[in-house]
Amino acid sequence: MASADLRDELDCSICLSLYTDPVSLRCGHNFCRSCIVSALDAQEAAGVYSCPDCREESPQRPALEKNRKLANIVERFLSSPPVMESRIFCTYCIKSSVPAVKSCLQCEASMCREHLRAHSKSVDHSIIELTVSFEGRKCSTHHEVLKFYCPVDGACICVSCWVAGDHKGHDVQLLDVAWEKEKEKMRPVIEKLKSEKEEARRRVKNLKDHETEQRETSAALADRVSGLFTDLKEKLEGLEKRVQDEITRQQDQVSLSVSDLVRQVELHKDELTKKITQLEGLCNISDPLTFLQEDCGDITVMEKSDILLDIDTANNEIIISEDLRSASYTATSQNRPDGPKRFTSRQVFSSRSFSSGRYYWEVDVSQAEKWLIGVAGESLERKCVGNESFIGYNNKSWALLVIDSFGARHNNVFQRLVSDSPVEAVGIHLDYEAGRLSFYQLCDPIRHLHTFTASFTELLYAAFFVFPDSSIRIMK
């Protein structure tokens, strides 16, 4: 392999320079470690990672394997002496071997720069790039330079072929003109092939997406079937118990013996014990929403906290409504003055902070295909460009979200959640002293989604992230 060809094989496709600390992906493509790490960091917010060369996707961040053989090849290439690319010498430099720079078709000679200047004054001589072989560049019949192209016969010809040879009278073209015309013909073909390749890529992606969707649907169906059979088993066990109790009751009615009366009293005592245990369990529940759901199935008795948005924290791509309850995306910057509280990312905090006590508020997310809401500490970084400042992507915030999937996130750890219906409104309950943050789906009946437990030590705020073409609203 020529030195230039080997040099091309040792270039990273991202930085276009020689590999530095080369690593490999699972698909087999290689990159500089720093280059691929930066590329994967940029893809993290989307939740899907892909190879920059072949675009093979992975839901998990791919592992990087050090390519020791490639690293050794690069090291040897850098330490080896340069190889002379040209071994063609000037035909006219008799006393010494001087490298040639150009060749002449008519003379079938190669020249250094000094002889080239004199040779360039010759009329009708064709100066070409340096070559060691002139075969194929001259007519095999007339030994003249091939300057024309005959479209009739599809052949490159010399002037004698055209004037007096087999191609006499044909409508011929200069080679450069014919070359440009052929390239013009090939361009639509190339574009069509590129379009077909892109369509094939899209079909592969759609098939993979369909496979993933079917796999997720099957898993959800399996979970539902398992739940149905579990519920059926519990109902059968309950029915069996009731039948057995009825048999016992009838037996007790038939027999008026003292032993039967004692047995009835013991059964009554057991029922009282169960009820006492259930009531004591309810009294030990620290989350009022869970207690009310268990007790009466209705959280409407909870008094809503008055939560408004703090415009001084809002990113300039967010529009805040006049009543300070809605946050919507805009592509036009709002040009608000910068300050220590304002976010660089598309986030906004509530004006009210929480340092103790219990709070409850509700958020309408029905106008957002993607949404990210939760609670964050006052010390959350606000001037960071990356997703490490997003709600839930650090240890200072807790979030419920729908991006690529539905789930909860804290300290950048994602927990997938399942809902039987689309979540359009969310109830949020914060118990600061108990260290509980609970999320509820506002439907009929109200459904508990997820609860975080933590030891809160700083001021907390209601936090919201706004995606493009989306709007969220704090409900009154």
UniProtKB/TrEMBL annotation:
Keywords: Coiled coil, Immunity, Innate immunity, Metal-binding, Zinc, Zinc-finger. This is Uncharacterized protein. SMART domains: BBOX (SM00336), PRY (SM00589), RING (SM00184), SPRY (SM00449). GO terms for molecular function: zinc ion binding. One of its GO terms (cellular component) is cytoplasm. Residues 134-175 form the B box-type domain. One of its GO terms (biological process) is innate immune response. Pfam families: PRY (PF13765), SPRY (PF00622), TRIM_CC (PF25600), zf-B_box (PF00643), zf-RING_UBOX (PF13445). CDD domains: Bbox2_TRIM16-like, SPRY_PRY_C-I_2. Residues 287-476 form the B30.2/SPRY domain. Residues 12-55 form the RING-type domain. The keyword Chloroplast does not apply. InterPro entries: B30.2/SPRY, B30.2/SPRY_sf, Butyrophylin_SPRY, ConA-like_dom_sf, E3_ubiq-ligase_TRIM/RNF, PRY, SPRY_dom, TRIM8/14/16/25/29/45/65_CC. The keyword Flavoprotein does not apply.
